[in-house]
Specification:
There is one protein chain. With 111 residues, this protein is mainly alpha-helical. It has helices at residues 2-26, 40-63, 65-87, 89-103, and strands at residues 32-33, 36-37. The protein has a two-stranded antiparallel ribbon.
Length: 111
């Protein structure tokens, strides 16, 4: 496990250096924010974040394809549950109100 993490970190570092050099030198691409050019080191740091996220996602999918499939099914199930709940909420509310009215305790006045 530690070997895989080390390998992923090394790959991320190589990709970061390579893409940072490629973007700043060869493509002459600069990141602008609010009409101001961002300095090259900040551009490399931003690309580092993007590459690190891509490496982590690739690492997770490559080493646990079953987990990715399970995540997709769980997400689809939660989506269907929320969609069904949002469609049938008036019916659920009505049945809840009926059950509440049938089961609630009758209050007696103590004089």
């Amino acid at each position: 496990m530690f070997k895989n993490i080390t390998l992923a970190v090394l790959i991320a570092m190589v990709l970061t250096y390579s893409l940072g050099h490629l973007v700043t030198q060869w493509l002459d691409l600069h990141i602008s924010f609010a009409k101001h050019d961002v300095e090259p080191i900040t551009s490399i740091i931003a690309l580092t974040g993007v590459v690190a996220i891509l490496v982590v996602v690739g690492f997770i999918i490559a080493f646990s394809l079953f987990a990715a499939i399970a995540f997709a099914f769980i997400a689809a199930g939660i989506g269907l549950f929320v969609a069904g709940l949002s469609v049938f909420w008036p019916v659920i509310l009505f049945f809840t109100l009926v059950i509440f009215l049938l089961v609630r305790d009758k209050q007696t006045s103590a004089h």
